[in-house]
Design goal:
single chain, 192 residues, mainly alpha, 8 helices, Multi antimicrobial extrusion protein, transmembrane helix
């Protein structure tokens, strides 16, 4: 979410002043960059962030095939968007985004399987075992103990409600996709 906010407003300045893009290439670089910086961050995160975890699961071959499949889908998407639909540079950017999302979703489906060792299931039993034992009690008059117990605040729960965290994450991805779909339609509608 932060990447488009940083790079989209300053994209032209970055291309002209830092990368030293020529005037002939600048319009094409802007078209490609706007689409990629707006739509691709989540897709790139899914692929580049989850492929190393496949290696940890001793499934490095799936990560490699995912990368190869993304490259092949990108090439096919270039042909379809640029050759068939005649979209041009925006089509190349959309092919890149589409291939990254497709492979990223396939990798996510792999993690959602029940036999995946990387399935996210927080376990706090080891944390609770490391908690220190309560201090030995000190003899205090009983009236004082009752007064302290009645006025003591309730301690916070020791466990995180993970169903809320998962709901927030799913909602965040849903919001991102809800922004992605109309943006793709707007880009397609503005094609000359």
């Amino acid at each position: 979410v932060v990447e488009p906010l940083i790079f989209l407003p300053s994209l032209e300045w970055i291309l002209v002043n830092i990368i030293k893009t020529s005037d002939a290439v600048l319009p094409y670089a802007l078209d490609y960059g706007r689409v990629v910086f707006l739509l691709a961050p989540l897709g790139f995160f899914l692929v580049s962030g989850l492929v190393p975890v496949l290696r940890v699961e001793n499934r490095a071959n799936l990560g490699m095939w995912g990368e190869i499949s993304a490259a092949c889908l990108n090439s096919i998407g270039d042909f379809v968007y640029m050759g068939v639909f005649g979209i041009g540079i925006r089509g190349a950017a959309m092919a890149t985004v589409t291939s990254q999302y497709t492979i990223g979703c396939l990798i996510l489906i792999f993690y959602m399987r029940k036999n995946s060792t990387s399935e996210i299931k927080p376990d706090f039993t080891t944390f609770e075992k490391q908690m220190p034992e309560p201090l030995p009690s000190i003899s205090v008059p009983e009236d004082t103990v009752d007064a302290v117990v009645e006025t003591a605040p309730t301690p916070p729960p020791s466990r995180i409600r993970w169903e809320y965290v998962q709901g927030i994450l799913k909602g965040g991805v849903g919001v991102y996709i809800a922004i992605l779909a109309p943006t793709m339609c707007a880009i397609l509608a503005n094609i000359q």
